[in-house]
Amino acid sequence: MRYAVISDLHSNLEALQAVAREARQAGAEAFLCLGDVVGYGADPTALIAWVRRHCEVVIAGNHDWAAIGATDTSYFNPAAAAAARWTGAQLSPDEAAYLAGLPSTARLGDALLVHATPYQPTAWHYLLDLRSAAFNFSHFEEPLCFLGHSHVPGIFLFDEDRRRLRAEPGGVLELKPSQKPSRRAIVNVGSVGQPRDGNPEASYALYDTAEGRVELRRVAYDVAAAAQKILAAGLPAFLAERLAAGY
Ligand code: ZN
Fold first, then answer.
1. Ordered strands of the 154-159 beta sheet
2. How far, in Å, is the centroid of ligand 1 from the Cα of 80?
3. Rounded to whole angstroms, how far apart are CA atoms 1 and 27?
4. What's the pTM?
5. Tens digit of pLDDT for each residue in 109-121?
């Protein structure tokens, strides 16, 4: 089975449609979503409809629960808080109930799916470096963990036999669990709707379960159209500007 693993869509319909098209061309048969379907962008209703229709699994993100008042937002910056309030006002009771009912983790074969970190999934910690990766490897059992939240794609590899941890450059991971049972990985799939690694192209991962292969991919999309919708909705201009810069 070949999955497209998507995260941090953030109400960006242009980015999501571009990723979905590219993923299907690359052979994706199903979609897995790691949360933050909404927040920041201008199309929350369209995004919720899309993930309900197309995703086999959808995990809750902090912005999904922020929009419905179900998680603490005191640490949100003013633009994020304004977007959460605006998003909440757009949602129907049915859409709000859908977001409220999303699970905080899921298991799919060899993989754990979570929005932020395996350790305390709904405390919304960030996993950005080897130190936090090392800590989190001891808080899940599966060979593979997919997550998002930081909007920075990357792969952390842990060899349990040699107790060796490293960041995997290049964005391609060959797991082959049968041959290397002690090798485990944490894959941050990056963000579809608001990349923050300096590259404005939408990010996602292709996961082929039969081959044990994960590939981080980037997709160009109509950034100007998504930014224009954010401005037209009256959301903070900063949220439109950052899309082009990829930060
Ligand atoms: Zn996010």
1. 105-108, 111-114, 144-147, 183-188, 154-159, 164-168
2. 10
3. 9
4. 0.96
5. 999 999 999 999 9
